[in-house]
Design a protein that fits this description.
The strands form 2 sheets. An 8-stranded mixed β-sheet has the order 3-2-1-4-5-6-10-8, sandwiched between helices. The chain has a two-stranded parallel ribbon with strand order 7-9. By secondary structure, the protein is of the alpha/beta class. Helix 5 (about 130-150) runs parallel beside helix 6. About 35% of the residues lie in helices and about 20% in strands.
Length: about 270
């Protein structure tokens, strides 16, 4: 019997690809189909150290591999270092917990850039609350980053944070708390004075990256679609040292137009946050 989660994801994806041509919000995304622009030449990060928060997660693992392929030194933290070392190799592991700011002291020493790929999941672990992870956890790491002059902080957030829908069911109430806390974390980062990029992916699926083009739109756009976690990782790594991505908040999603690499030059056309 087909897994319920897989079924729901598949139906959503098929609906998206079947109907996106008729969805008004997709028109700006399809505008990226024009003549392909060369991707900007980015400065090398080889030899730099990037702190990946959430390195054992499904998106974080891909971020780590992409960084290692560029000759970047990767630092990460976990509550269970032994388990983390088994899951993700070639990383400098530090024992710490984003929910406990005291454990993050000096975590950014020697760190050049940060990717925050942790998300709360209080359904799986009641202690992983949105307040502690998506809000205060982000803020605590931002505070440490400010102390050591981190160059760029990439935060993987979520679409719909500015329009959370609160309903009567326990699930709807829980998602409302997730979204409002994610927005608080975003706002703290934006007000910090650090260089940043906030990524708001739509629904995530565990597909191979690079199979569908990536759409980038400013702000919080409720695109009826999905994006591969590997594609989210690719955008996050690009935003670490892409001057065109600095101080911008964008929604990212997979689209069906043919320019697979068009997203790499799309940041240049997006205005900085005000």
């Amino acid at each position: 019997m087909l897994n319920r989660r897989v079924l729901i994801t598949t139906i959503a994806a098929l609906s998206f690809f079947a109907h996106c041509g008729n969805v008004t919000i997709m028109k700006p995304a399809h505008a990226q189909e024009g003549a392909a622009k060369p991707a900007p030449e980015l400065p090398s990060m080889k030899g730099e150290t990037v702190l990946v928060a959430g390195a054992t997660g499904r998106t974080g693992k891909v971020v780590v591999e992409m960084l290692k392929a560029q000759g970047v030194k990767v630092k990460a933290f976990s509550r269970n270092i032994d388990k983390a070392k088994d899951e993700v190799k070639g990383v400098t592991w530090v024992k710490a917990d984003v929910r406990d700011p005291k454990t993050l002291k000096n975590i950014t020493k020697g760190v050049d850039r940060i990717v925050f790929a942790i998300g709360s999941n209080s359904f799986k672990d009641a202690t992983n609350t949105p307040d502690l992870v998506d809000n205060k956890g982000v803020a605590a790491l931002v505070d440490e980053a400010k102390k050591t002059g981190v160059k760029q902080f990439v935060l993987i957030s979520s679409v719909s944070v500015t329009n959370p829908k609160q309903g009567e069911s326990d699930f709807q109430k829980a998602m409302y708390r997730v979204m409002t806390n994610k927005l608080e974390g975003e706002n703290y980062l934006r007000a910090s004075g650090l260089g940043y990029t906030v990524l708001r992916p739509v629904g995530l699926w565990d597909r191979e990256g690079g199979k569908f083009p990536i759409g980038i739109m400013q702000g919080d756009v409720e695109v009826p679609g999905m994006i591969a976690r590997a594609d989210v990782a690719a955008v996050a790594v690009n935003a670490l040292n892409n001057p065109d991505a600095k101080n911008k908040t964008v929604t990212i999603f997979n689209v069906t137009h043919p320019q697979l690499e068009g997203w790499k030059s799309a940041f240049a056309g997006i205005p900085a946050d005000k």
